[in-house]
Amino acid sequence: MTGPNLNTPRMKALCVFCGSQFGDNPAFRMAAEALGRALAAHKAALVYGGGKVGLMGACADGVLAGGGQVVGVIPTFLRDKELAHSKAQEMIVVPDMHTRKRIMFERADAFCILPGGIGTLDEFFEIITWRQLHVHNKPIIILNVDGYWDHMKGLLDTIIHRGFAHQGHDQLVDFVTRPEDVIPAIEAELAAPKPAVVFKV
Fold first, then answer.
1. Tell me: the pLDDT tens digits for 25-54?
2. What residue ranges define each of the domains in the chain, with the CATH number in brackets?
3. Left (φ > 0), alpha (ψ -120 to 50) or beta: where does 90 sit?
4. CA-CA to 92 of 20 to 30 Å: which in 37, 60, 72, 168?
């Protein structure tokens, strides 16, 4: 009987992008909380935007309920609105949104996108663009709860099929439908990293 392969990369911190609202389906909140609990059980830290509201707060609460580590990154103007999660073990206050995204990127081994709004889209498109441009090759998982991101998947397919991205760009991101599938998908990719996609003009 052999022990675990100690050389296999393991996710130690997951950056989660998600909404500051709960949305119109209780399944969104349940998925955020379940992902948080899964992170705690995996002993991986949550890196997120630092908020106490909406799916952001639900995911952090799930981590904390499981005894896990929460790292928030919040701009000063949002902290001043008293939106920061008071129970996060680490809260990094930054001057602007750009710094927030950079630090979240630096602190994470992978990324997961839950349902969210315009801010979540901004974060997602930046991190997938950086992967396209070979700035990083960290796993990006979209948790497609109740088909929320179906149109996003269709849009990404259209971008490729209409000639604005090369074949293989669909490998920049993976879609799963259940929170319990997020960590296994990330661990599988960390163990067998995807090759960088074609980047040319």
1. 999 999 999 999 999 999 999 999 999 999
2. 13-147+173-190 (3.40.50.450)
3. beta
4. 37
